[in-house]
Amino acid sequence: MDSENPTPLSKHELYLATTFQSKLEEAEYLSNLPSDESHPYDNKYEARKILEKLLVSLEHSSLEKDYQNIAKGIVNFFIGMNFYDTEENHMAEKHLSSSLESFSELPRDKICFFFNYLQELYNTLGTLFANRDDFQEGLAIFAKAEDLYPLMKKVYEKHPISVVHNFRGFTPGETKETFRSYYQGGINIHKCEKNYTLTLFYMAQAYTKANLKFKAAQYCGATLKRQFELKDYEMKDWCVNCISLAEFYNSNMEFAQAQYLLMGGLSIVPEKKRKLCATFYMALGHHLLELLQFSVEKYLSGKTDDISSLNTLNKKTIVFENMNSKFPELKLPQSIEDLNSLFRQCNTQYKKALKYFELDGYVTEYVQIVRDLSKAYRYLSMVEKDQERVLAILDRRRELLEYPATEINPKAFENYWQVRVYLRIS
Predict the structure, then answer these.
(1) What is the pTM of this model?
(2) Number of CB atoms found within 10 A of residue 79's CB
(3) What is the pLDDT of residues 291-343, one digit of tens each?
(4) What does the alpha-carbon distance between residue 256 and residue 352 come to, in Å, rounded to a whole number?
(5) How far apart are CA 237 and CA 246, in angstroms?
(6) Number of Cα atoms under 13 Å in the Cβ half of residue 348
(7) What SS3 class is residue 314?
(8) Residue 216 contacts residue 204 (beta carbons within 8 Å)
(9) Could you tell me where the beta strands, DSSP code E, fall in 104-259?
(10) CA–CA gap between residue 14 and residue 62 (Å, rounded)
């Protein structure tokens, strides 16, 4: 386009660039405006009125077919998201489905400029279905969002301009984005990347709810990987999910993968976040406890050269780029000293955790750690041949368990123990 002699807009384009654009910007401004806590959705309701009037006007407009589908697709999208935000899911689904239908009628050379809308439509509709336990339909919709991502990247490669559509607050030259009217479409690459991460996250949630654990772990890992590599995550949530995923790999004897996740997660936590560090130490202690149990069982059964177990032990599924942690290579125990080494590593991690999770203030965590350490000593006693050392190990177990029992006020946990006793009797 010649910047000095721009092509004049048709009357349809002029309407979409002025009246239509103005109403959408007004509605979006209201939607994002905080409301009084006693009436949290008032501004969204006002925005909805504007959008619904705009939709009615489109029904009576003489816009060209493609422009009509673009305009209806956009307005129904915003109305649907408005209903979704106010937790009116039935109406949200209705308008989002109408939006998807309008966009789907566009020719291929035009629909590609509205992929951002399709991406959010798939994510939201998939969530609506998954939340009402229709996992098959929800996951099918999420799969469309997943497949759309590489197509969006290709479109952006051909048209490497990241666009925004709301002129309010937009200052040319201050961002890496360019303003275009809503009806012109275009790819916002930042939204594209963020929404694709959400797609993976929603799929992990849906597979978890559907009890498809391996698929859930696959998408949980993919989500963590993207969040880390794009540096787009809230640290505490990311770490909690990292620990949960490590627990899954532990349960499937993929101990190297679990250890890699825990050590990697710990490497990004600042030392000043003492509780989060202690949580990782506790998780590492529990991981090493399970690895110790597995190793003792292999040692006692004489299966210390089991290739199949060794392959599972070191199976590599998720590796983060630029993470300050190497993927470990674990070995099956060949001697009692190997088992002693594992025990010492486990003990070290739990001792680090106990520096924060003291009995005074963190009874639950403290007792759990003590119980796990007691188990570690028990596994060690199973392979120890020196009877005097076995007695010393058992004595240490006794000391560990006696201390909290003498320090905790029984009355503070009276209800807890009553429930435990009742369950045992019943």
Answers:
(1) 0.87
(2) 25
(3) 999 999 999 999 888 888 899 999 999 999 888 889 999 999 999 999 999 99
(4) 21
(5) 14
(6) 7
(7) coil
(8) yes
(9) 162-164, 177-179
(10) 13
